Amino acid sequence: MTPHYYFPHHGKPSGEVLSVDICVYGGTSAGVTAAVQAAQLGRSVVILNQGDHLGGMTTGGLSYTDFGNKAAVGGMARQFYKELGAHYGVAEEWTFEPHVAERVIDRMVAEAKVPVRRREFLASVDKADGRIRAIRMESGLTVRAEEYIDATYEGDLMAKAGVQFRVGREGNVVYHETLDGVQLRAGHQFEHAVDPYVKERDPKSGLLPGIDPLPLEPEGTGDRRVQAYCFRLCLTQVDENRIPFPKPHGYDRRQYTLLSRYLAAGWRDVFGKFDPIRGRKVDKNNHGATSTDFIGMSWSYPDAGYRERERIFQEHFRYDLGWFYFLANDKSVPEAIRARMRGWGLCKDEFEDTGGWPAQLYVREARRMVSDVVMTEHNCRGEEAAADSIGLASYTMDSHNCRRLVKDGRVMNEGDVQVGGLPPYPVSYRSVVPRREECQNLFVPVCLSASHIAYGSIRMEPVFMVLGQSCALAADLAIRDRQAVQDVRYPELRALLLKEGQVLEWPVRR
């Protein structure tokens, strides 16, 4: 069965009204930890999830966990990886099977008795006096809550609530950074010259699909381009569990002309980032100049409506599946690569309702809130440190490529950044709450306030889990004291965070 992003509501709107203390919009890993923590505090809570499965990328194919420094991960997030470890008979497990992760997530939610509404898409927000009073779903469901947590990868509740956000890359000058904006670097770059034109060496024939005709801007120039998305696939070579890559409906061989020419030029590193996980499987991520990243096709996704996102989702599905089909079957591919790729396939015991294909598109970055504190490259480098830490981030400053262009008559990728080797750093409480004048009862642990390059470091699933839990603890305080989220007293919040096992500073002090 084909996976989908959007499930439009059919029939008469329900008219149901639900009242809770805390409403979590988005069943990502952040949404789950937020909801479970809220329930454990005795608060009534509900998760409104867009799809059928909870956990976002944590259960949707990202099984070879990007964690940076494990010691920086605490609280419920760390417990999650311990529970995965218990399943496999080890202390912790960070490279797991997707269905096992989903089983743990579902058990967490069930044990906390958190109600979940699935296939719910936000239609409108009722806001008055700086507070969200209610949100209405396309199904007709209305949810009234004291506090709201936008745990989506897209930041839809934040946007509809009138909170300021940014899409794309800031110029370096905005926050005095060095790695934001346009970046033409060596990572995931074409190692051999590849002609960009439909007819080689003939500019009049036009550019191949996916190549931006605009020239390269100066390094650090800001724009609205968004780093590439892909699907994180769970693959196997075990014959009894393997589904051969089918030819996707609407397959267009022209999409893989660059790949064909790159192979003809001598590239052979096709099987990079087949990262081993449990169950004799791998988590396949993008690798190299042309791979599963559908470069340049994510730019309109963050602000798009649901039907347009569904179209973009299906384009990514078709492209990624076609990439594997092409490598396994196209006669332009060297036989050794074709034969090896035919030995791989999707897993019969993963994502069973969508034919072995994950239902979650890897939305690496969409909207980013702009609040009183913006996390920047200076935080990542330790040049500035948030005094109101609600958790640590520790991953490399990472951006996948944003576009393809022509430079000196050859194809080049632009936007990749991979700068690491830095210690963990605190994420500010003020980066997950909006400005007071914009909204006083909303938390945003996923599309938090950060520059493009800082977001590339923060945006890891363990960190989202940490931030989701921390937001729930803050929401509880805001309800108790009947105050705006901006007025939550940090010393009191800090004490609760530490009690729940969150790691708030580096080096860790015991």
Largest sheet, in brief, is: 7 strands, mixed
Distance between the termini: 50 Å
Inertia-based shape:
globular
β-strand number: 22
Q: What's the CATH topology label of the domain at 17-168 and 419-499?
A: FAD/NAD(P)-binding domain
Overall pLDDT, averaged? 98
How many helices? The count is 12
Q: Which structural category fits the helices and strands?
A: alpha+beta
Strand content: 15-25%
Radius of gyration (CA) equals: 22 Å
Features:
FAD/NAD(P)-binding domain, 510 residues, globular, 26% helix, alpha+beta, single chain, 5-stranded antiparallel sheet, 7-stranded mixed sheet
Please explain how this structure is put together.
Strands 1, 2, 3, 4, 5, 6 and 22 form a 7-stranded mixed β-sheet that branches. The protein is 26% helix and 19% strand. A hairpin with a 2-residue loop joins strand 8 (197-199) and strand 9 (202-207). The radius of gyration is 22 Å and the shape is globular. The model has no long low-confidence stretch (mean pLDDT 98). The chain has a domain at 17-168 and 419-499: FAD/NAD(P)-binding domain (3-Layer(bba) Sandwich). The protein has 510 residues and is α+β, with helices and mostly antiparallel strands. The protein starts with 16 loop residues before the first strand and ends in an 11-residue tail after the last helix.
